[in-house]
Write a structure and sequence with these properties.
By secondary structure, the chain is α+β, with helices and mostly antiparallel strands. It has 2 domains: about 1-50 and about 290-430, no CATH class; about 65-270, no CATH class. About 45% of the residues lie in helices and about 15% in strands. It contains 15 helices and 13 strands. The protein has helices at about 1-15, 20-45, 85-90, 130-135, 145-150, 160-165, 240-260, 275-280, 290-320, 320-330, 335-365, 370-375, 390, 395-420, 425-430; strands at about 60, 65-70, 75-80, 100-105, 105-110, 120-125, 140, 155-160, 175-180, 180-190, 205, 230-235, 260-265. A 6-stranded mixed β-barrel has the order 5-6-11-8-10-9. Strands 1-12-4 form a 3-stranded antiparallel sheet. A hairpin with a 6-residue loop joins β5 (about 105-110) and β6 (about 120-125). The longest helix is centred in the last third of the chain and has 33 residues, at about 335-365. It is elongated and about 90 Å long. The two termini are about 35 Å apart.
């Protein structure tokens, strides 16, 4: 430990002797770490747990279904969300899962009070199980009950902002509002949900059995196999994923035997949270191997370009210290010790820069998160994505930042350190670099 402290103090002393070069190196490294971490956060925000999606590591998703219909020819395939009939037959009551819920995509509807001006909000149609999977923060009231959703009663859960817009207060459970001119009783009020919680997000939640979502012809097609619903499954533990997928496959196979002239398939679903975030269309499954390779290539490019520049700066500093290296070698310092000192000196610089870069990244993400995290799939929503510190501050963020810093340090200082350690003692004492 004393040796490490000594090396860090020595490294800091050396860096202070060349302040201009040190500042340039730190800023260049900080911008690199900031850029990489912005890219990492764009991916992490889709998978890291935060309320109300605190159970993301235990979630499985079926967003889309496909129907191969022989009525239109063997090659005719229709794709999209699934119907209530299909969801019930294939996924309700899975024995290997803890909770299963069905939900619709967000639809823009008008909410208002009688004789008052309406407001367009995002409405999600779901069931009572939805509130067992996601940990909404209830400010007033409670979720609608299973008996309410099974009976298709006109009950609703609304967000705090919708409650205050309509009633100027959040304590409104038991009161009524109009959803597309249909009276709904408010069961509870929840804290506003960021649209970055893509599955849980909405502004109003109502039972799908209270509308024509499950029966109306405009909401069901392909003989009632496809519709407007998706499925979210909460596993008891992550290790149950494979058994849940196997049970889903058996249920789909059994259901296909009971229908004529067509068959259902789900393109590898249920998906985990990461795969679901990349499963953006119903016509194909995401190639996750290609995705990881693509991400790796981007990171390597972002690391290599500044590493080359920082390596040049490191070599510039070492040219002024060749005599010092020669003296240390003549007093018995080994090549590995010389390399270690140079790498540690550069590591101090890189860690300082990584901290600054991470601060820049958090500031940028907090102030301009709506620009950074908004995707094309969010453009139809009535709210922009809200950023909260819980979404950004997590252990994995700091681990990634440290990992990239260490890697950048090795790339930028490894070769100059090796080259400096190879200089002959006589040449080094006379200031020669070869």
């Amino acid at each position: 430990m004393k040796m490490i402290n000594y090396l860090f103090r020595q490294a800091w002393s050396q860096l202070k002797q060349q302040p201009l070069l040190t500042v340039v190196s730190i800023l260049g490294t900080a911008l690199t770490i900031c850029l990489i971490m912005v890219m990492v956060m764009q991916q992490q925000i889709k998978v890291v747990p935060f309320a109300p999606e605190s159970n993301r590591d235990r979630l499985l998703h079926i967003k889309w279904g496909s129907v191969n219909s022989e009525s239109f020819g063997k090659k005719y395939v229709s794709n999209g969300p699934i119907s209530y009939k299909t969801a019930k037959a294939c996924f309700r009551g899975l024995n290997s899962a803890e909770v299963v819920s069905f939900y619709s995509m967000n639809l823009s509807m008008q909410v208002k009070l009688p004789l008052a001006e309406g407001k367009g909000v995002d409405v999600k149609q779901t069931d009572a199980s939805f509130f067992q999977i996601f940990d909404f923060v209830f400010i007033d009231g409670k979720p609608f009950m299973q008996a309410d959703s099974d009976a298709g009663l006109p009950v609703a859960v609304i967000t705090e902002s919708v409650a205050k817009y309509l009633f100027d207060t959040a304590a409104v459970s038991g009161r009524e509002l109009l959803v597309n001119n249909v009276p709904y009783r408010i069961a509870g009020v929840v804290k506003d949900v960021s649209s970055l919680a893509s599955t849980a997000y909405s502004q109003v939640w109502i039972p799908y059995l209270s509308t024509q979502m499950t029966t109306g012809g405009q909401f069901n097609w392909m003989d009632g196999h496809l519709g407007y619903l998706s499925v979210v499954i909460l596993a008891k533990q992550k290790s149950d994923f494979e058994s849940i997928r196997a049970e889903c496959d058996r249920r789909v196979e059994t259901h296909n035997k009971s229908i004529e002239n067509c068959s259902l398939f789900f393109r590898g679903q249920p998906d985990n949270q990461l795969t679901m975030s990349k499963h953006t269309n119903a016509t194909s499954a995401p190639d996750m191997q290609d995705y990881f390779i693509h991400q790796l290539m981007i990171v390597l490019i972002l690391l290599l370009v500044p590493a080359i520049n920082l390596s040049s700066m490191t070599q510039s500093r070492l040219r002024q210290r060749v005599s010092e290296i020669g003296v240390r070698r003549s007093f018995g310092a080994t090549r590995s010790e010389i390399m270690g000192q140079i790498v540690v000196e550069n590591l101090v610089l890189t860690l300082i820069a990584a901290f600054i870069g991470l601060v820049f990244c958090f500031i940028f993400a907090t102030l301009w998160g709506d620009l950074l995290f908004t995707e094309s799939s969010m453009t139809y929503l009535n709210t922009a994505p809200a950023i909260e510190w819980q979404m950004l501050f997590n252990a994995s963020t700091f681990i990634y930042a440290l990992l990239f810093s260490l890697l950048l340090n090795l790339l930028s200082s490894g070769f100059p350190a090796w080259k400096a350690s190879k200089i002959a003692i006589v040449n080094a004492l006379t200031g020669k670099t070869h």
